[in-house]
Amino acid sequence: MIHKTSPEVGGMGHSIKRKEDLRFIQGKGNYVDDVQLPGMVYGQMVRSPYAHARIKSVNTEKARTLPGVLAVITGADLAKANLAWMPTLSYDKQMVLATGKVLFQSQEVAFVVAEDRYTAADAAELVEVEYEELPVLVDPNKALDPGAPLLREDREQKDNHIFHWEVGDRQGTDQVFQKAAVKAKVHAFFPRCHPAPLETCGCVADFNRATGKLTIYMTSQAPHAHRTVFALVGGIPEQNIRVISPDIGGGFGNKVPVYPGYVCAIVASLTLGLPVKWIESRSENLQSTGFARDYHMTAEIASDRDGKMQALRVKTLADHGAFNAAAQPTKFPAGLFSICTGSYELPAAFCEVDGVYTNKAPGGIAYRCSFRVTEAAYLIERVVDVLAQELQMDPAELRRKNFIPAASFPYKSPLGWTYDSGNYEAAMKLALDKIGYAELRKEQLEKRKTGELMGIGISSFTEIVGAGPAHTFDILGIKMFDSCEIRIHPTGKAIARMGTKSQGQGHETTYAQIVAQELGIPASDVTVEEGDTDTAPYGLGTYASRSTPTSGAATAIAARKIRDKAKKIAAYLLECSENDLEWEPGKFYVKGVPSKAKTIQEIAFAAYTNIPPGLEAGLEAVDYYDPPNLTFPFGTYVCVVDIDKGTGEVKVRRFVAVDDCGNIINPMIVEGQIHGGLTEGMAIAFMQQIDYDESGNVQGGSFMDYLLPTAVETPHWETGKTCTPSPHHPLGAKGVGESPNVGSPAAFVNAVVDALSHLGVRHIDMPITPWKVWNVLKEKGVTG
Ligand code: CDP
Fold this sequence. Notes:
Elements: H1 21-24, E1 41-47, E2 53-59, H2 61-65, E3 69-74, H3 75-80, E4 85-87, E5 93-95, E6 101-102, E7 108-114, H4 117-126, E8 128-133, E9 161-168, H5 170-179, E10 182-190, E11 202-208, E12 213-218, H6 223-234, E13 241-244, H7 260-272, E14 276-279, H8 282-288, E15 291-292, E16 295-303, E17 309-319, E18 348-356, E19 363-365, H9 373-391, H10 395-402, E20 411-412, E21 418-419, H11 424-435, H12 437-449, E22 453-462, E23 474-475, E24 478-479, E25 482-488, E26 494-498, H13 507-519, E27 526-530, H14 548-574, E28 581-584, E29 587-590, E30 593-599, H15 600-609, E31 620-625, E32 634-643, E33 650-660, H16 667-686, E34 691-692, E35 698-699, E36 717-721, H17 739-756, H18 770-779
Parallel strand pairs: 1-14, 12-13, 15-19, 17-18, 26-27, 33-36
Antiparallel strand pairs: 1-7, 2-6, 2-8, 3-7, 4-5, 9-18, 10-16, 11-12, 11-14, 16-17, 20-21, 22-32, 23-24, 25-26, 25-31, 28-29, 29-30, 32-33, 34-35
Helix pairs in contact: 9-17, 13-14, 14-15, 16-17
C-alpha cells in the first residue's frame, strides 16, 4: 500500500521543487571542467582527417620541443604498455590511439600534454602524421560485398560482418505470411544521430605518487563499472582507483562508453605524476563519441481483411562504425530491439539483425533509449500506419483492434518478453479525447477538398526499461542490479547513496522522496549522494531509464529494512510487543492508541542513545536490488501537423502525450522528463542527422549542421497520464525518462505521411526536412 504523506514530508506524488536546482540556477554546479587541482596540466587529442588511411609515420619532434609541452603520447607508446587497444562494452576492441591505420575521420592518433590548454592545442597542430589513403566504406549495404575494403585487419574474421542475431519463429512467421490476405511493408531508416549533451565528455585524472591512489573525475554515467574496467585493463588495484562523477550536464547514453581521452589522461597522469585534464570540444564530441541509431530496418506485417494482425517480420542492417562499441547487455547484440512487436497481440513474429563495420565513428549507444527500443518502437508504429493505409482503415481503429487487452497482462510476447502490466486502450482513448480526434479527422476531410495539407499521427508505444534482471542482463559480465545505502543520523536526518548517477534527472529530489515515503522523514532532511565510488554502493549506473526500476526499488527496500529495525526500537521504547504496533509515515503507534507513539526521529535518537539490549547500535541499511523483471511503460502520442505546400515546411500544430509510468514519484519531474524527451524526438524527426560523404567526411560535425532545437522550433506540449502500476516494483513505479524520445518520432512521421497519404505517400525517412517534403510534393505534382 502506498501511504499518503503530507506536503511537508513530500513522499511519492508530491511535485516538490528540485533540490539540486538551488545550485544549478545560481551557476554553482560542479562539473568536470570546474575541477581545478594544484599543478594540473592539459591534454589535447590529435585526430585523423581521413576516414580510412594507413599511418606511415608519426613525428612528434616539433610538438615535444614547443615550450610548455610535457609529453606527446602516440599509439606506439601505448603499445609498449599493452594499452594501444581497449575493450569495448560489446566484447570488441577499439584503438585508444591509432596504430597501423585509422578507421574513421576524427579518430584519436596522438595525445599532447602541456602546461596550459592553448599550448596543448598549438602543439597538437605540430604533430606530423603521414597518411596513405585507403578506399573508404560508408554505405553499410556495401559492407559485405566481395570487393568491399576490409576495415578490421586486426580480426581473425576477414570481412566486415560483426554479428547476426535472430529471435522468434522464422518458419512459423513465413507460413503466416504465405497465407495472409493483407500484407504491408516499410523500409525505414533510423538515421545516425547524437545525444549532444550540453556538457561534452571529459575527465581529470589525478595520480598521487605518494599514496599510489588514482582519482578520476569524469563525466561518467556508470562510475562503478568504469572503475572496474580501469582496474581490469590497467592492472591498477581497484581500491586505489576512485572515480568521481560530479554534476553532469546531460548524458543520454553518450557518457556510458569509455573513450580514448579518458585512457590517455590516465596514462599521462600516471607517467607525469600530475593531474591531467582532458575536455572535448563540441565538434570532437559530435564527430568521435557514441552516436546512436543508424538502423536500416524493413518490417512486414500480415493481417486478415478486417485488420486483425497475424504476424510481423523484421530484417535490419545495423551500422556500427569502425568498432563495435555499442553499449548493450552481453546477451543482446541488437539491444532490446525484439520489443518490436510493440503494443500489439501478434501471434507470430520473427526478427533478425546483422551488424557491420563501416568507416564511421563507433557508438551504437542508447540515446535516451533502452538499448534499441527507440528503433523498435519507431518501426512497429510506422508499419502499423502503413497497414492502416493498405486496409484503408483509421489508424486509431486498427490499433484498438490489435492492442494487447488489459486483461492479458502479464503478457508473453512472441519474441520472448513478459510485459508486466498495461492498459493501452485507456491511454489511447485519453490522448484521442484530449486532442479531439474525431473533429480533427472531419477538419482534415474538409481541408483536403481545398488542397490544404494537414495530418494526424498516432504512436501507441510500449517501452521496456529497468535492466536487470541479473540472470539475463550484464555488461562485460557485471550483473545489472543496482543499489542504495541509507544512514539515519541520531537527529533523524539521513543520507542515502546509490549506484546510479543523475545527469539532470533530479535524483537528489526523487530518491529523497522515496525515503520520505517509506520512513516519513521529510525529503528536505534527506541528502542524496551518487557518483563517488569510494562512498556509494556498487551499481551499474544511470541509462536506459533504469534508475527508478532498480535503485528506486533498492531505496524503498533499504528504507523498509530500516523500518523493520525501527519497529524493534519503538517496541522497546513503548514497552510493547512489535505485533502491537501500527505504522504510518513518520511514526509507530500502539494499535488503537494513536497517542502512544514514537516518531522516526525519536527512534533514530534512541538507536544511538538508548539501544535495546541485544540490538546493534545505529540505524542504516543497504540493498542490492535485482529486479525480477523489466518494467514496461507505455503511452499514446498524437501529433497534428500542417504542411506548407510552397516550402514543404511542416508545422506541428498540436502534440498530446499521454504517458503511463505506473506510480509517479514526482509529477513535476516526470512532466519535465516528457517535455525534454519530446523536444529531442522532434529534433530527430525533423532536424538532425550525422551523415557522411563518400570519402567518409562527417557532415553534421558541428552545431552549424547538426541542429539543436530551441524554444523557437519547439511546439507547446500537452501532456496527460494514466496509471497502471508495475506489479513487481516495490513502489509500483516504472521508468519514464526515455519514453518521450522513444514514442514521439513515429508520431511526427506518421502525421506527415498522413497529411500526404491521399497522394500515395507511404513513408518518408527522418529527418523530414522542408527540402525533402518539397521534393515529394514536386514529384506528386502538388507544387511547382
Ligand atoms: O534512469 P533515469 O533517471 O534516466 O530514468 P527514470 O528512472 O525514468 O527517472 C527519471 C526521473 O523521473 C527521476 O528523477 C525519477 O525519479 C523520476 N520518475 C518519477 O518521478 N516517477 C516514475 N514513475 C518514474 C520516474
